[in-house]
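Slack export, channel: ligand-projects

TW: morning all. Re-posting the request from yesterday since it got buried. We need the structure predicted with the small molecule present, not the apo form. The ligand is fe (ii) ion; the SMILES is in the block with the sequence. No rush, but it would help planning for next week.
GE: picking it up
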Amino acid sequence: MLEWRDTMSIDRGALDDDHHRLNELIRHFVALPGEEEQRPRAIALLERLRALAFRHFEQEERVQAAIRYPLLADHRSQHRRLVLLLDDIIAQVDERESAFAFGYAKEKADHLLPFWFLDHFTRGDLPLKTHLAKIPGLVCAPVR
Ligand SMILES: [Fe+2]
Ligand SMILES: [Fe+2]
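GE: finished. pasting the full token output, ligand included:
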């Protein structure tokens, strides 16, 4: 699991803050023991991750629209796919939905979630940094 580094900064503002929090929620999830009694805490963390991700994706798309980011349409599609994938991961970990034992479902999620965040972040979000850097004085106000 990745430690947050300064080179991961995109806007020195709300987007960075969200990325840092998304990464931290995943770290907390992965750190939970894979025992059945941990399932409610694991689900609660995943629900927080989902809520934050959903709000963050909207915010990031608003920023991209504001700067007329040329890759906005593709980026929006990626966000939609990430939400569906996260729903699927949550369903597997959730007792009511899952056909798997908690430990097995969590182990799968432990591997998928860091990739879920990092793959999109490095290939989709980081290129945005160059575009934002061309707009002096742009401040991304927090939505929360
Ligand atoms: Fe994104
Ligand atoms: Fe992002």
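GE: first-pass observations. The chain has one domain: 12-133. The first helix runs from residue 14 to 31.
TW: perfect, thank you
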